[in-house]
Design goal:
There is one protein chain. The chain is an alpha/beta fold and about 300 residues long. The chain has a single domain, classed as Glycosidases (TIM Barrel, Alpha-Beta Barrel). It contains ten helices and eight strands. It has helices at about 35-50, 65-75, 95-105, 110-115, 130-145, 160-165, 170-175, 195-210, 240-255, 255-260; strands spanning about 20-30, 55, 80-85, 115-120, 155-160, 180, 215-220, 265-270. Strands 1-2-3-4-5-6-7-8 form an eight-stranded parallel barrel, surrounded by six helices. The protein is globular and about 50 Å long. It starts with 20 loop residues before the first strand and ends in a 30-residue tail after the last strand. InterPro entries: Beta-glucan_modifiers, GH.
Length: about 300
């Protein structure tokens, strides 16, 4: 990062056709990590994995928390896919989170230089949090409010979320780029992580067909190493163990060229999630801070 905050975003971000293959981690913030922990872990993502971004997951409602994220990202030299978190209880807290985030993004001078985009999520269409017409309206409103700082807006969602209840093409049309939940473990055809490419490709191709050539990211993207009350397969053949989790990411690496060739500048992917302490079963690190498997994903091909 430069020693002083730039005056303009012109030529600040790398072109989107360089943002394919591994980009970074989903990173849950429900624990309201301290500024020091944010800086330490963002720096780890940058230096030890060549990550360029963190994709936030969950919510911390402490005042000023996103400003801590911005400071940590600035210091680590990493970008952020910010998130307006709906949660799972049907409440209206997301509206306060929306307003707080937009306030931070428009008042913190560093925010637009680390915030690659804002997501509405997680899976608001699949969870039927808002009717698709209302969600599209929210996206358009946020885009208007953030136009002065040049931050694009999207929705973090499954292909199934866009497809069910008659579809939500208006949301796909409204968003600036497409943040895709790629969780093939839950497919009725799932077997192992290493054999999941046909499932990944099916959803990716649907977004290619419906997305109007927009940039695509796999943001909530991974394969679990264990099942739990909230992580149950829909296929009797689906294998949840550490080798299968590792094999999923190796499989994505093996299809680097396919991801690079996708419309909109290729598909960039995040690993869901940074640590088991954030979401059991999906972490690349275990709860003791040790890597569960060798993780050196490709960042180019």
């Amino acid at each position: 990062m430069p020693s002083t905050v730039p005056n303009t975003l012109d030529n600040w971000w790398c072109p989107v056709d360089s943002e394919y293959a591994f980009l970074g981690f989903s990173y849950e913030v429900t624990a309201c990590q301290s500024p020091d922990q944010l800086k330490q872990e963002f720096t780890d993502i940058r230096n030890n994995f060549n990550g360029r971004y963190v994709r936030l997951y969950g919510a911390c409602d402490n005042p000023g928390f996103y400003d801590d994220v911005v400071d940590a990202a600035w210091e680590a030299g990493i970008g952020v896919h910010a998130l307006i978190w709906f949660g799972f209880d049907g409440g209206n807290e997301w509206q306060t989170r929306r307003d707080s985030l937009i306030s931070s993004l428009t008042s913190n001078p560093k925010a637009k230089f680390v915030t690659r985009g804002v997501q509405f999520g997680s899976e608001p269409l699949f969870d039927n949090v808002l009717p698709h017409e209302e969600l599209a309206s929210q996206v358009l409103s946020a885009k208007s409010q953030l136009s002065g700082v040049g931050i694009p807006v999207t929705v973090s969602e499954l292909a199934d979320g866009y497809q069910e209840r008659g579809g939500a093409q208006d949301v796909l049309d409204a968003i600036d780029f497409i943040n895709i939940h790629m969780l093939p473990f839950f497919s009725g055809l799932a077997t192992s992580g290493g054999d999941a490419w046909p499932l990944v490709e099916t959803d990716m191709n649907w977004f290619i067909q419906q997305g109007g050539g927009k940039k695509m990211y796999f943001d909530e993207n991974g394969w679990p190493s264990v099942t739990s009350s909230g992580v149950q397969p829909n296929s009797a053949l689906a294998v949840a163990d550490v080798p299968s989790e590792a094999a999923y990411y190796t499989m994505l690496d093996s299809h680097c060229q396919d991801l690079k060739n996708a419309p909109g500048g290729g598909v960039g992917w995040f690993a869901h999630i940074y640590s088991e302490s954030q979401e059991p079963g999906y972490g690349v690190y275990d709860t003791n801070g040790q890597l569960k498997f060798d993780f050196k994903p490709r960042t180019s091909c």
